[in-house]
Every structure is written in structure tokens, then in C-alpha cells.
Amino acid sequence: MNTNKKFFRILLLSLLFIGGGMFTATAQSEIKELSEEAIEFSNLPKAVQDAFKNSDYAKWEIEEVEKVETDKGTMYELEVENEDETYYELYFSPKGELVLKREESHSDGDDDHR
């Protein structure tokens, strides 16, 4: 493996670990949703429910819950919003790990997210 490729690979892996398991901005763009299905919070795996309830977002309003098939495997997406109208998509692994947090704009034309 050439030195530049090896360095980049080590750097990317380091960023993933430093981020507490969250994907970096570079890796976020690599996640591709293949399909999604709306589900109820009560139908999430217990590990995901517990992780959300113990997260910094537990008091935020849940707008939508989806089971998402991605090129990285199954994830569970919770769309949440706080009283300041900050809106995030939180992606959890089936084991309850928060693997991606993506802030979303309210200018998507959806009346719920202005």
C-alpha cells in the first residue's frame, strides 16, 4: 500500500474513533439509504430505545421514526426537534450506538420543520 493511502486510511480510522463512534463529515456522505420504513418508537430494538432515552436528545420531540436499510447495514433513524426548532436526524445501530447525527434545514418545504 502506498504511503499516502496508508496515511489517509489511518487518519480516517482515527477520526472515526476520536468521534466516539460517530461518522465524520467525510464518512457521512458515504452512507446511502437504500430503503426506509416508518415504524413506532415502541417497535425499535430495546437497545435503541434505551440509548435514545439516555441521550442528550431524550427531551426533544420525536417527529418520525424509521427503520433504514443503508449500504452500511440496518439503522434506525429518529428525526427530533427541540423548542428552538433545531432539527436533527439521529441514526442508531441495532445495538443502540449513535453512529450519525445530521442537522437538517427547516427549509425543505415540510410544514413540520420550519
From TrEMBL:
<dbReference type="Pfam" id="PF11396">
    <property type="entry name" value="PepSY_like"/>
</dbReference>
<dbReference type="InterPro" id="IPR021533">
    <property type="entry name" value="PepSY-like"/>
</dbReference>
<feature type="signal peptide">
    <location>
        <begin position="1"/>
        <end position="27"/>
    </location>
</feature>
<feature type="domain" description="Putative beta-lactamase-inhibitor-like PepSY-like">
    <location>
        <begin position="36"/>
        <end position="98"/>
    </location>
</feature>
<keyword id="KW-0732">Signal</keyword>
<protein>
    <recommendedName>
        <fullName>Putative beta-lactamase-inhibitor-like PepSY-like domain-containing protein</fullName>
    </recommendedName>
</protein>
